[in-house]
Amino acid sequence: MKPLRILIAPSGFKESLEPDEAAACIEKGIRRVLDNATSIVRRMPVHDGGEGFCNALVAAKGGEIRPITVLGPHKTPIPSHYGVIGEDRRTAALGARLLDDNDRELPTAAGGGSLIHLRSICLDGLHPRLLDSRSGGQAIEMEAVCNINNILCGSNGVARVYGPQKGATPAQVHVLSRAMDNLARAATPVLGYDMSSAPGGGASGGLGAGLLLLGARLRPRVAAIDEYFQLQQTLDSGWDIVFTAEGALDSQSTKGKMTGEVARKARAQGAYVIALVGTISTGANSVYEDGFSAFSSILDSPLSLDDAIQQTASLLTSAAERTMRVVQVGLSLRSRDGL
């Protein structure tokens, strides 16, 4: 019997495991069931944006991580970092201004809802290299890797889709939706088009819209992952089973998230795709239509969120072992019946 070929391609579990750590846990669970003689196992962590993407990209391209202090929404210093690949050419502060009816700047600390009072957007203070028409030298090219399926406004806009997931009440979702509508209206004379349904405009809570205002090109995340980490090339190598994983599985998992892209691409190559997830939310069954063969929660008993975060590594390892034992039963039955 040929060795079972297994690819482990998880995303991360927020606040607990980075993708590479999740991949190691899954392999540990698999190896409790299968040895090297009966299986070929390879890890290929996938980064769904977020904290680890910068580190992974820099590592893949031989760059450098550099620390920096930035200001948060309440003007408090926050330690952060950025990656450098090739030459480091930082610019001055961006300088965009959001103005109300009295030409006063909106208070950033008031949150996204303050955009309800937005009347106009002033870009006169931008660094000249960010504006092609005003640049005296070489213009800056900005490319933003994001979930291109997220739009800013409407029933599928960022506030209505992701607001409830982040804990917003129905009243807050209504306010945020109006704010996004107002942002799109104010941006129209600046951009020359309506960005309310622009692909990627709703990415990262509307950050995509802000980047569009600065002239950025929004690029589908999966295209960048293919280029930087050879996702498609790896999936073309002929795998029997592909394990993926993320914190929550729901109807949005196949709408541009990396776990969904892995499932779609792997299934097209004939692999069976199994997802190990923290929580299974409304609409999760729809993922069967988009490449997933099976999914299971890693939780084995009722746990608080804090406890689940603390125990994610052991829970994921045990879930991988349980799942692999079920797969082994199926393989044994198939072999016994000569299928």
TrEMBL record:
The keyword Ribonucleoprotein belongs to this UniProt entry's keyword annotation: no
Source species of the chain: Metarhizium anisopliae BRIP 53293
Entries under Pfam families matching the protein: Gly_kinase (PF02595)
Family: Belongs to the glycerate kinase type-1 family.
GO terms, biological process: organic acid phosphorylation
Protein name (database record): Glycerate kinase
Source organism superkingdom: Eukaryota
Molecular function via GO: glycerate kinase activity
NCBIfam families: glycerate kinase
UniProt cross-references to InterPro entries, sorted A to Z: Glyc_kinase_flavodox-like_fold, Glycerate_kinase, Glycerate_kinase_RE-like, Glycerate_kinase_sf
Cross-referenced PANTHER family: GLYCERATE KINASE
Keywords, alphabetical: Kinase, Transferase
